[in-house]
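User: Okay, second chain of the day. Same drill as before: sequence in, C-alpha cells out.
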Amino acid sequence: MKGIEDSFDYNIEPGEPLITLIAAVKIAHSEFDGQLSRWEFKYDHLGDIEIRVYETRFESENVKVEVVINAESGKFLESMISKL
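Assistant: Same drill. C-alpha cells below.
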C-alpha cells in the first residue's frame, strides 16, 4: 500500500503486532520536521529476514527526508536526507 499525500486524513491499521501508519508518521516526525509527502507500507529484507516497514517522506522548504520504520517495533531502520 502506498500514497502520495494531499490531505492526510486516513490511517492504515494492519493489526497486532504491527503499528498503525499514524503511529509510524508520529515516530518519524518526532525526529524530522516537514510535511508528509509520501508513505508506503511494504515488505522489506533485513539480511535474510523479511520484515514489514513503513517508508515515509517528509519535505520542508529545502530538504527531503526519507525514513524507514519497522512496522512491528516502531524503530528507525534507516533515514536519508537530501536537498530539494
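The helical segments are 21-29.

User: Thanks, on to the next one.
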